Amino acid sequence: MKKSIFLSALASIGMLFMVSCNSKSQNEAVQETVTVSVDSVVANPEAYLNDTIVIEGVVSHLCAHGGKKAFILGSDENTMIRCDATPEMGGAFPAECVQKPMKVVGTVVESRLTEEDVQQFEAQHAEQVKMIAEQAGAEEAAAVEKAAEGCETERKAQGQGNIDTFAAQIADYRARIAERAEKEGKPYLSSYYIVANSYEILPE
User: Fold this and answer.
1) Which residues contact 135 (CB under 8 A, 6 or more apart)?
2) Taking a C-beta distance cutoff of 8 angstroms, is the pair 79, 71 a contact?
3) What ranges in the chain are assigned the alpha helix state H?
4) Cα separation of 82 and 46, whole Å?
5) 109-144, pLDDT tens digit by residue?
6) Domains of the chain from N-terminus onward
7) Minimal CA–CA distance to 86: which of 115, 52, 47?
8) How many of the other CB atoms lie within 10 Å of CB of 97?
9) How many angstroms separate the Cα of 60 from the Cα of each of 5, 9, 70, 74, 119?
């Protein structure tokens, strides 16, 4: 009987130790997740690459295709970063977050655009124009052929806020890729965004 009580006591102590360790690990993880301004991430994204951070700011725009992308403003309307929704946080941001302050916890990731990607972009655009010409006529196809891809907010986030035609968009990509290859030896463009783990709409 005494042996049974002794073993039970040991088990209880072990469980308490495990809970204590787990709590400590969770607290350390919370402490390691730092709050960073949108301006800081936009100015020096490589410093935060693959880090899990917290950002706060007003949501200027929400992607019309299911709310999967939210754009959070920094100190002005031209400073912003894109946050992508994930299944872990519900798969989409709610429509009511637009023009509201929001806190996002997520990981900073990099996307690269190469000349091969630009060529694929052109081919897909040409295929889309061809399909529209067959289904809706030449006039509609001509309008789509001219228009820049992506919404105005996303173009602004990519540094193409003053570009409104597809041809100018492609030319800008190629010029910036060539410039970076010459200056840094990197034949691609980098864009940075946040893969969201969680979000919270804050009081105004």
Assistant:
1) none
2) no
3) 2-32, 38-43, 115-136, 138-146, 152-157, 166-184
4) 15
5) 999 999 999 999 999 999 999 999 999 999 999 999
6) 33-111+192-201 (2.40.50.140), 115-187 (no CATH)
7) 52
8) 20
9) 62, 57, 8, 10, 31
Structure tokens at 201: 């709409």
Structure tokens at 198: 């969680």
* Tens digit of each residue's pLDDT (9 = 90 or more) over 22-59: 333 333 433 467 899 999 999 999 999 999 999 999 99
One-letter amino acid identity for 126? Answer: A
- Amino acid sitting at position 89: M
Residue bearing tokens 């997740």: 33
Residue with tokens 């993880």, as numbered in its chain: 29
pLDDT tens digits along 54-97 = 999 999 999 988 899 999 999 998 899 999 999 999 999 999 99
